[in-house]
Amino acid sequence: MPEQETTYSIAMLAAVRRLGELGFENIDEGGFSCDEGSAQIVANNGGIAHLVIARAKRTRGAVAKPRESEAKMRRIAMAYLIEHPDVEELQFHVIEALIGEHATVTINASMCAYHWER
């Protein structure tokens, strides 16, 4: 039987690495998806649920903090909370893997771009 080729997402690799460096636990790369959108990663850190949008883009010009619509993050978070009613606190993060020249990757993050707690 031939070996199956595995493809990895640079955005996911960079985001998981960054979360690990920050001490996050139970990093689920399966993420969460609903009609409102998706978070590529769900993690836990200190009893707080964390939803993470992970994406990659090429570096061009000045680098700005990654942004996502607060309304979109709020709708995804509310869908997650409906499915997980035991969650007391939730944070939403946006992590970008910036692909530069000579195969370099820089992590650019907007941590706690959205926050909710009971």
Polypeptide structure, described:
This protein has 118 residues and is an alpha+beta fold. Helices cover 22% and strands 42% of the residues. A five-stranded mixed β-sheet has the order 1-4-5-6-7. A two-stranded antiparallel ribbon has the order 2-3. β4 (41-45) and β5 form a beta hairpin. The chain is globular and about 45 Å long. It starts with 9 loop residues before the first helix and ends with a strand.
Beta-strand portion reads: 35-45%
What sort of overall outline do the alpha carbons produce when their principal axes are compared? globular
Structural class: alpha+beta
Give the number of helices.
2
Oligomeric form:
single chain
Low-confidence stretches: none
Task: Measure the end-to-end span.
Answer: 52 Å
Helix amount = 10-25%
Roughly what is the average pLDDT, rounded to an integer? 91
Order of helices and strands: HEEEEEHEE
How many strand elements?
7
Radius of gyration, CA atoms, in whole angstroms: 15 Å
Strand order of the largest sheet: 1-4-5-6-7
Largest beta-sheet details: 5 strands, mixed
